[in-house]
Amino acid sequence: MARSKNIQLVSPTPHTIAAPMLRPPPLPLRAPPPRTSRLPPPKAANPNTDPTTTTATAAGTGTGTAPMGAAAWWRRSLGQRFNPAGVAAVAAVAASEPRLALPHVSVQDIRWLDWAELRRAGFRGVVFDKDNTLTAPYAPALWPPLAAAFDQCRAAFPPGALAIYSNSAGLKEYDPDGVDARAIEAVIEGVHVIRHDVKKPGGTAKEIESYFGCSASNLVLVGDRYFTDVVYGNRNGFLTVLTEPLNFADESYIVKRVRKLEAYIISYWYKKGHKPVKHPLLPEARRIVKFDPYDDSVTSRA
User: Fold this and answer.
1) Which residues contact 17 (CB under 8 A, 6 or more apart)?
2) What backbone torsions phi and psi does residue 198 show, to the nearest 5 degrees?
3) What separation in angstroms does the CA of 221 have from each of 14, 164, 243, 268?
């Protein structure tokens, strides 16, 4: 007979047998933080100016078209911030005629201009750039501090003699149905937005001359950019007036950088002795500048 063995089971204590170490579950992979874009975020929709809002509202009533998609919005936004024709103009002007980028007159804003003197000199109308010349960027309404000066301009010239020629509103590439143009005409009394095909500084003045019924040499062009407004104006024979931008805060990063580059180049050309093109109606352009922009007496002379 086999001898039985007494086997005693002993529960292990923490000091007798080491429990196996289990690895903690792997941490979930975290998405990398988003890279900050240098482009500004899309602005809040404005029912008076934003074609996306306008078409979406119309679609809700069964009378409009499909709203602008995100890709179309970005193409439009980037196109307004980057102007290949403007880049080409810098190269062409630098290589041939730097004076085309030099304005006849530079002022802080339109309050410094003597509109009655311009009219007496023989000018028949005024063409304004829009963004940062008359309005804040992408806004339809006149910049409030300019209201009195714009009223003086409107009083000095006959009805229909004030127009806007912009690389945003009225440009068929971005405003094909004229929605933005009509919004501006509705809120700025006495101004017509000229519809056109080509961005400044490219193109001729045919649409402007057709509207006014005269040569561009009888018109004043007011804008805030050297290589778009001033180059376009001087190429086509306008009297060119450069104003400082009204509002830097709403401008894109790209536009701000381009402004600094433009200012550097223009300063260099002035130092090299380049002078603006002479204008036949106003050989001495400084006579149209007010000594005191808040003194209205100079605009009331007979």
Assistant:
1) none
2) -120, 140
3) 91, 9, 11, 24
Distance CA 214, CA 48 (A): 32
CB 288 within 8 Å of CB 113: yes
130 contacts: CB under 8 Å, gap ≥ 6: 164, 166, 168, 169, 184, 193
For residue 255, give the amino acid letter.
V
Instruction: Tell me if the pTM is above 0.85.
Output: no
Query: How would you write the pLDDT of the chain (302 residues) with one tens digit per residue?
Result: 545 445 454 444 444 444 444 444 444 444 444 444 343 333 333 333 333 333 333 333 333 333 444 544 444 455 455 566 667 767 788 778 999 999 999 999 999 999 999 999 999 999 999 999 999 988 999 999 999 999 999 999 999 999 999 999 999 999 999 999 999 999 999 999 999 999 999 999 999 999 999 999 999 999 999 999 999 999 999 999 999 999 888 778 888 888 898 999 999 999 999 999 999 999 888 899 997 666 655 444 43
Please check whether residue 100 is in contact with residue 237, taking contact to mean a CB–CB distance below 8 angstroms.
no
Which residues 6+ apart lie within 8 Å of 224 measured at CB? 129, 131, 132, 133, 242, 243, 244, 245, 246
End-to-end Cα separation, the chain, in angstroms: 143
